[in-house]
């Protein structure tokens, strides 16, 4: 019993002398659970619809279903807004057929649109029948309750897709995001753990006393891990598209470029963390603070109804840009010209983290 208590005391003393571990041990879970609570309480999503020359009764029914209706006279403008993500669907009515053109990538938004439109169409049909029956009763009060046949305002509803088709599900929508997330996490853990292990084993200290410059040290790690990560990204993407069945409407080479860029962001961030962390355990703790919040705000959850500060924070994380680029390429068939700005932002993160890592290793070299 004495030996057990002595060992327990030793472990508690180690925690007591490591204030950083204690703080991250508490702050990490609280931060993540708080983000979960905000995301899951975001509320019901109400679609934004572009209504092209629709009857007033249908527009009113859509508004009653809490949809946001924007009326347009030309379908071309409405379609451009749909392609830009400004609206969730374009509604047109011709010869009694209501056509609902959805963007098609986000299945949750597509479901919200179809549910809202179906309820509104049903409400219009009921209101039309009740109105005609009320007029007949007013003109012929002795008829009583009668069964009437009417020509409905909307005889049928067709669904068209700007991207994909009705076979796409949630798996297809979240697939590109998960590809970026897993590559980012695995590279972060691998690079951070490897460098901390080298430092605890004395290899890093021997490197730092050689004439090698800090930026050369960081470049060497980036080159070595970069070759490994580009091979990893290529194999993972090939397996996802060819074996698992992820849809890919764009260039596979462009997808590899984005995945490799995300891996380099993760690698350089791992270099920064490894310069601060003293043990592999602290690398995991930093992941809870620096990586998991990025994952939660990267596109796994819909942020349309999230607080404004959370939507702004989403634009400050590299995983968000990588996931957005992968989704645009794989699901929307975006080209390099269309995703070039997003890829440039990823490389801006790489440069920033590279500089921070170089500064961190320079400080260790001069100590």
What features would you describe in this structure?
The protein is an alpha/beta fold. The chain has two domains: 48-161, 3-Layer(aba) Sandwich (abc type-2 transporter like fold), CATH 3.40.1710; 170-366, no CATH class. It contains 14 helices and five strands. The chain has helices spanning 2-16, 19-40, 56-64, 75-83, 107-139, 170-200, 203-208, 214-244, 252-276, 280-290, 292-300, 308-314, 318-332, 336-366; strands at 48-52, 68-72, 89-94, 97-102, 156-161. A five-stranded mixed beta sheet has the order 2-1-3-4-5, with helices on both faces. Helix 6 packs parallel to helix 9, helix 6 (170-200) runs antiparallel to helix 13 (318-332) and helix 9 runs antiparallel to helix 13. The longest helix is centred in the middle third of the chain and has 33 residues, at 107-139. The two termini are 44 Å apart.
Structural class: alpha/beta
What proportion of the residues form beta strands (DSSP E)?
Answer: 5-15%
Count the E strands: 5
Number of H- or I-type helical stretches: 14
Give unreliable regions as ranges.
none
Largest sheet geometry:
5 strands, mixed
Question: Which short descriptors sum up this protein?
Answer:
5-stranded mixed β-sheet; 14 helices; 367 residues; 8% strand; alpha/beta; 69% helix; single chain; abc type-2 transporter like fold; 5 strands; 2 domains
Short précis:
This protein has two domains: 48-161, abc type-2 transporter like fold, CATH 3.40.1710; 170-366, no CATH class.
Record the SSE blueprint.
Layout: H1 2-16, H2 19-40, E1 48-52, H3 56-64, E2 68-72, H4 75-83, E3 89-94, E4 97-102, H5 107-139, E5 156-161, H6 170-200, H7 203-208, H8 214-244, H9 252-276, H10 280-290, H11 292-300, H12 308-314, H13 318-332, H14 336-366
Parallel strand pairs: 1-2, 1-3, 4-5
Antiparallel strand pairs: 3-4
Helix pairs in contact: 2-10, 3-5, 6-8, 6-9, 6-10, 6-11, 6-13, 8-9, 8-14, 9-13, 9-14, 11-13, 13-14
